[in-house]
Design a protein that fits this description.
This protein is of the alpha/beta class. The chain contains 13 helices and seven strands. Helix 4 packs across helix 12 and helix 7 packs parallel to helix 9.
Length: about 325
């Protein structure tokens, strides 16, 4: 079965120099912004009801990376978040677990201990999150520390300044180095911060750059800027992973993060996945939501479908 390493090897000629990489990235088809946004809006009008809606809610819950990335994070807060990840609705043990708990590297050990015995993964942001402005040895040390503490997944950020300055090979080599640090110990999610990339063409280029460098997932945002995940930028990244698999046989995951707050929005994103990349991506191994506030709304909608009445936010735990 093809791997991210075999895909990287297939593009060795493309990534051999700055000029060959630039030629490839700028040779990708230009994005029709009007068409992209119109298609994303059209897919968002699909109506999902009854049993299909119940399935979609449970699927969305299982895809959430429950996240706390604040300077005021404490071990107690991380343990509480881990408990919620394992049993999102303590009154209904049929509720799926979330996919992961995502924390800063210094909280990985706490999260790992709290999640022991469960299937919930521990994800850690690294590489000078959220700015990505640090020397490569610092980024690698950050990654190594998180993995040593037990992280199953690493969410790295690219150096947007280098990318926007056209130093594509530098960005590629940093992603490849972090991927090498992860090895087989952790899956790598590469964050582009799409709200800072200015154009859809840049998002397409960043998607291919990340995949060629060995990303296991491509991720829209840190959640720390004004513009985060949107249907249009996620659709564009779904097209990229679809086309990448068609060319290489390697499947890459997608994670929209930031700004997805309610069940209706989450279901729109699941429709985007199904209609663009296909049903193979409708699994937490290949699609994630970086949206902690989303979980409470999903739980309230799930309770409403089970009981016939809307319980309200007082009946779910506060993150």
């Amino acid at each position: 079965m093809p791997t991210t390493a075999s895909a990287a090897a297939a593009f060795a000629d493309v990534t051999a120099s700055e000029s060959t990489l630039r030629r490839f990235l700028h040779g990708l088809p230009g994005v029709d912004a009007v068409g992209l946004e119109a298609r994303a809006a059209s897919l968002g009008t699909r109506s999902i009801k009854t049993t299909a809606k119940a399935y979609a809610i449970d699927l969305a819950i299982s895809m959430i990376d429950l996240t706390t990335l604040e300077g005021a994070d404490t071990p107690g807060k991380v343990r509480a978040l881990a408990a919620k990840a394992v049993h999102p609705d303590p009154t209904d043990r049929t509720t799926p677990t979330t996919a992961a708990v995502c924390v800063y590297p210094d909280m990985v050990a706490t999260a790992k201990a709290a999640l022991a015995g469960s299937d919930v993964k521990v994800a850690s942001v690294a590489t000078a999150f959220p700015a990505g402005r640090a020397a490569l040895p610092v980024k690698l040390a950050d990654t190594a520390d998180a993995i040593a503490a037990g992280a199953d997944e690493i969410d790295m950020v690219i150096d947007r300044g280098a990318f926007l300055a056209g130093r594509y090979l530098e960005v590629f080599e940093q992603i490849a180095a972090v991927k090498a640090e992860c090895g087989d110990r952790a899956r790598l999610k590469v964050i582009f911060e799409t709200g800072e990339l200015s154009t859809y063409d840049n998002i397409r280029r960043a998607s291919w750059l990340g995949m060629m460098a060995g990303a296991d997932f491509i991720k829209t945002s840190t959640g720390k800027v004004a513009v985060n995940a949107t249907p249009a930028n996620t659709l564009l990244m779904l097209e990229a992973v679809r086309d990448f698999r068609a060319q290489t046989g390697v499947q890459i995951g997608v994670k929209p993060a930031g700004g997805i707050r309610n069940t209706k929005e989450a279901i729109k994103f699941l429709v985007l996945v199904n209609e663009t990349a296909g049903a193979d991506w409708l699994d937490s191994h290949w699609f994630r939501f970086g949206a902690s506030s989303l979980l409470n709304d999903l739980l309230m909608q799930r309770q409403k479908m089970a009981t016939g009445h809307y319980s309200g936010p007082d009946y779910v735990t506060v993150d």
